[in-house]
Amino acid sequence: MKIKQILMATALTLAPLGAAAECSIEGTGEVNVISNFFEALEVLSNEMKNCGNDNLIIDTKLTTDHKEETNKAFAAATSPFDAAAVANSSITLLQAKGQLRPLNDLVEKYRDEYNIEDGMLIKFGDEVAAIAFMVNAQHLFFRKDIFEEHGVAVPSTWDELLDAGEKLKAAGIEHPYGAAFGNSWELANEYVNLLLANGGTLFDPATSDSTFETPEAIEALKMMGELYKLMSPNAMSMDFGDVKRQLQQGDVAMAILWGNEASAMDDEKESTVVGKVGFAAAPAMTAGGAPASTFWWDGYVIPKNLDGDPDLTFQVLMHAMREETVKANNDITLWIRSAYEPGEYTSAITDTVVNGAPPYPMNPQASLAHGALGENIADFIVGKESAEESLADATKAYRSAAQEQGLLK
Amino acid sequence: MKPANLNIVTHSIINLGLWFWFLVALLPFFWMFLISLRVPVDAFSTPPKLFAPVTFENFRYIWVEDGFWRYALNTTIVTAVTVVVSLTMACLAAYALSRYRGSIGFWLLIAAMVFRAMPHVVLLTAYRPAFFELGIWSRYETLIIVLVAINQPFAIWMLRAFFMNIPEELDEAALVDGCTRWQAFFRVIVPVMWPGIVTAGLFCFLLAYNDFLISSQLMNGDMSTMTAALGSYMGQNQSLARLMHGIAGAVSITIPIIILVFVFQKQIVSGMTAGAVKG
Amino acid sequence: MKRSTFISFVAPSVMSMLILIALPLVAIVYLALYQSYTQMEIKEVKTEVPLFGGMTREVIRNVPQPVMDDAGNPIQVWEYVGTQNLKNAIDTEGLSSAFNADQNINSTRSFIRALFDEIRDVDFWSALEFTLIYTFLTTPIIIILGFGLALATNRLTERLRGPVVFVTLLPMIVTPVVSSLAVYWLFVDGGVIAASLEAMGIGKFYFLADQFTIRAVIVAYGVWYAAPFAFIILYAGLQTVPEEPIEAAIVDGASPWQRVRYIVIPHLTPLFSVIALIHIMDSYRVFEPILVFGSRVFANSVQYLTYYTLVFEDNIHKASAYAILTVLGVVVLLIPIMIRTFKDQKAGK
Domain residues for A167? Predict the structure, then answer.
């Protein structure tokens, strides 16, 4: 292991030191943090790394495999990670399995030092399970120039969006709409957005049994079938990255994407449509209804089985999430801290949330339902099964998964 | 076999077909190398561009900022030790199997064949809870010992084919001179076996280097090998920049392999045909 | 060689295989008989969700929470379920209802329809379906393609053969995850292949649109990946074809094709079967292209299904059930090879 440390030390000295932000955390040990990879998390990990010194080794891992790695680590005897970034859906099973360290004591201890706001605390009952830093929601991205040229108004309901799509198609835009229908998780995500906005539910909270086969569900699913007709035939294998690229390359005229990707539309390194993309709240299923979208928070948790020092870890996390970070990186996402100033790239997220988009359900059953739906509704969308059949298949898959987890008898 | 004389038309068609294969075999790698040197907007443009500004930013980022060198170091350690240990164990076993006439030898070879056909995920399913419980996951030793075991079946078969070609008179002469079996093996057989050992070593190397399934699950975080680390760039991903880093990573993994094929082409071919082609 | 010497020579290798290959096979049988989970009870919990600008939204709902033991640790349940996991994996219920479908005049048709529905809906059957399609489609194609390439390369001058072998080796030697990705990037929406075909006026193609096209692309990858293997072996085999019968055939006026058909192919027959057997074993394990093409709904493989269950669903018991079924499949595929080896042995080797 010696060689590794020496090499690591050399690499650290060679690496360009960022803005030498003063981090005055004192302590000895190692703090390892795992997270997904997107811009806000990149900023936060760089802030964490600034706290590293001779005694305090800070290591952050940004990976798209974060969910699986976190699950494995938190279930092991000791976790190689002292903290992990989670969101609405990924926190649920960790919390329900009792793997998260309650943070109440640390919050009290450092509330003043880091100005921890109540809005940042994710609570289950009285227990603080996570500290959140940003909010996100999917909403509509559209090409202002194309809409203007063809006299299309920004749709506020899905029926209007279908009409707009037909109009654009008639005007020669082959695939006017884009959405992530590919990966089974993402397909179910689009569906859940429509379902909840249509007044449907995923499961009965009292019994944990699924409620997939309802008229609201069938309507929502049929809407997806209609949307698919406006999309590239390859859509069934496109994830968010692919849809984002479609929009950035000018292949589609409108798309549903995550709010924190808005600024990437104006990034010349990625986009050919700089300045041409507008943002609006997600359309509603019924006129005047809530936007078909769910809102998500992203935050950090500390496991019970960490091998480092929770106090030190907490300080590093809070240092990264301090007000200065928000102020210096105001536009990259919708920060939760009150120091954040809303900008053009996040107004569509706030519109979506203020107009009543619900939070993504924070229950383990929701994750299982999500998985079961993602596996089965594709059969309907590509026309191999009726909506009823594919929802019945999803029910079957959900029940066996819930039984295996001990959630359903 | 000497090629037949064909008329000019057939001859041209055959050559055209060969050129087409040349193109098909190379195109995916060529395109990957090309886009790894671009910014996202050019790499995945519609329609695709043949020419675009070249940048080494993706490579700089993963090697300098993202610590890809750590993964490269892990790969080096894991593959080097795996090759040495696998060969040592397999050589002993293969030599004994080529010289022993009893029926256990035959059954052992049959068992090895079944093991060779075993999908690795079957083994992984058992390793995961066991290594968790023992607290030995994400360590070099663990991955190495697993890869060594997985290497054994085919290494034994391949090396046995090579040992069969060494006349038994050679060891018998050594035994007559008063050597023990072990001495005969190390002093007489191993020196003439080097070409075979190098060949088998190449295949052990490739198995360890190319493995994604086992390595990505047994190793975690900074302990990942290069191939396993690729998973952390791909997956569900909306960041095009991250995808570009992954492409640069994929190219970084490919370059050593291309060099290897270039240098050891003859040995690779002889390893693949060992046992299959007699005469 | 004496038996005791033999045993001491093979001991390290055999031990490693016993512990890390044979023992796991026993372990998956054990794991498949159990089910485990954290015991939970549904509690009414008030959760607070942050909005922005200091606002929060409070939600009261029923959420499963862990049941704690006296020491304050969550209780882990480890429960014997017998063959339940295996039955769920092959969906015995669905199978028997498909077999007992209504017995009217159209019963054969409705039975076939029910069976197809079953294959499509049950993960294991659809994974097995595509694994077998992949295996038995690629096998003949790689042999024909490999043979054609070997014959063509054999016509080249000595100096050109090296580069051809070098390039041909790449698809099969380069890390499969990487080569799968490299191929995938050619086929993405508006990618190189689709754009070139459109530019040549052949038409618009969507390679990742549905089950048929995605499966076709994966099979094409399989051919590209494995044809070099057939090529190398057959090319080496061509070097061993005896000259005399060919010269005799030339004297008799046989056409080049007749020479290949009546002399070369019979001579290489044993190699064709070796290639087929090894390739079948390897294709049964197809994993990387399924992982990379990411279209599990349309094309799955038994190995990927087990991996997914293990890694993403985090369910070792269900994964073990799939693993057992996978092993059974391997054994079935190996029977012909074993019979062959037995015959070789009997023939007095």
Answer: 136-295+348-404
